[in-house]
User: Fold this.
Amino acid sequence: MIIDCHGHYTTAPAELQTFRQGQISALENPSLPDPPNPTMSDDEIRASLEGAQLKLSRERGIDLTIFSPRASAMAHHIGTEKTSVAWAHACNDLIARVCGLYPENFVGVCQLPQSPGADLKASIRELERCVNELGFIGLNLNPDPSGGMWNSAPLTDKFWYPIYEKMVELDVPAMVHVSSSCNPNFHATGAHYINADTTAFMQFIQADLFRDFPTLRFIIPHGGGAVPYHWGRYRGLAQDMKRPLLEESVLKNVFFDTCVYHLPGIELLLEVIPTENILFGSEMVGAVRGIDPRTGNNYDDTKKYIDAMGLDDATRRKIFETNAYHVYPRLKAKLAAIAR
Amino acid sequence: MIIDCHGHYTTAPAELQTFRQGQISALENPSLPDPPNPTMSDDEIRASLEGAQLKLSRERGIDLTIFSPRASAMAHHIGTEKTSVAWAHACNDLIARVCGLYPENFVGVCQLPQSPGADLKASIRELERCVNELGFIGLNLNPDPSGGMWNSAPLTDKFWYPIYEKMVELDVPAMVHVSSSCNPNFHATGAHYINADTTAFMQFIQADLFRDFPTLRFIIPHGGGAVPYHWGRYRGLAQDMKRPLLEESVLKNVFFDTCVYHLPGIELLLEVIPTENILFGSEMVGAVRGIDPRTGNNYDDTKKYIDAMGLDDATRRKIFETNAYHVYPRLKAKLAAIAR
Assistant:
């Protein structure tokens, strides 16, 4: 079984964006009412997926995608916490409908109603709702709800502990995933995403978060940002800082996906990061949609790169399937329920 | 000849830090006088280098280092532009003394007196002074003088054009190099540096800076941040954005150093980035000072990784020597003057 741990609903029906635009209009003109909840038919949802994620998954041989709302559209910096609550509800409910329509193809991960300056109570409530009521198996945690201003506390700060306590209780992991950037220095998918990945990993090196939460688990997407390429730097920095070996201090809790869009990058990832810490992901349909003229394949068809490596079956299976069971313990129960 | 394009004077005599502390004290208590210019003897300067950069260079077989003030200490966010002007003067004058004492070992690159919110006039004056009077061959340009707040304009914004005009006139390149971080999210050498490298490259993809300045040249240090590891992502993003091929739009003007502290990273760099765009660098004595227990060598002994690759002589010579002549045209004249 091939499990893609990193898919976003980037092709949602236009009604979802109409709702969001209604929110933004009401923020700009408070005399306007809040927008009504988006309504779309099952057929509209099917149409949005059949020609995109489902088609590509079938072509590429991906069986199941761990699926969450469009990351760039989370935009936690827009409006207030109330804005984010309504938006997260709408987006997560839609993911639940997708998973209901295609239970063999998609399992849900939620967007949180984070908001700059807000505490995490609403996020915890939404996480509980999504896991307990909608059957989701994880969450996307935005380390920078400001959208490129980076004025929140580091992920190792006690500010975040309430959500970590809930994650441990529910036994769900978080993908560390920023959203769009309103800082003109940072292109969203070309800089902000990758920087956030790198930043989070270094934060994890610096502190004892995983001593406080030994079972807390994070996926750092986009192949871990710059981290595997600079693995020697991170090993050396930890050593100079008298921190434990990365294998002991971070790698029991932190995992990387394979959203690296060329073979040499995937080769490096698999060479330097233990197999146990790598989860197959493609972020399809996502940041890069074109076909690489050098290969004739989509840049984001990351399965092809892994296939090209000639891995033994045990290694392949860990990356494509079984590591995901460890990181997302609720996934096994979902699959068992489908099989019944 | 082996030229290291990336060295900082991280071991300067304590008098330099005393001067800086005097500046900071005067900022905190304006009744205090500005500190006197640091004075240190030639012997103190020699002692600071003989047991460190010079010793290691000799051991490692590095002939010449392109040498600039300690990057993390630039701290452009401290005080006002006047603070930065005096600090840059002191630091650059000290680099000039190093180059005067060891003309065969060090060639100077300057720190600029950037300051948040200030224009670039003082930086241009200092650049002219350092090139025309002190014989420097390049500059370090901080894309984020705020120290992790990222509230300046992107490097492709017209804000920066005056210094680019001066760089073109003087025919000197800039290394894009941030300084310390006062944002608790960003560890300086583990996140802020790498993020800045990644950020700058993506900015260069997005705009037509090099159409406006066809001969402008930048070195992106630390192996280009995350860029080579995500080369497929950058190629794909440029393609999706209908930008030209990176080879045409960016790689005539942007170069990477080899400050990547493990062999797999160096292998990736040399595999995906054209040889013409790679300059040997180690940033020694710098961010990572320990010995890798896996190899028994210093993490930052990057020459060993390149040596291990079994490159042909032509490729080696480009990376170790001749690419530097292209990027730093004033270097050849300096070497000729030494040889005389």
User: Anything to note?
Assistant: Chain B has a mean pLDDT of 97. The longest strand of chain B covers residues 3-9. Residues 81-101 of chain B form the longest helix (21 residues).
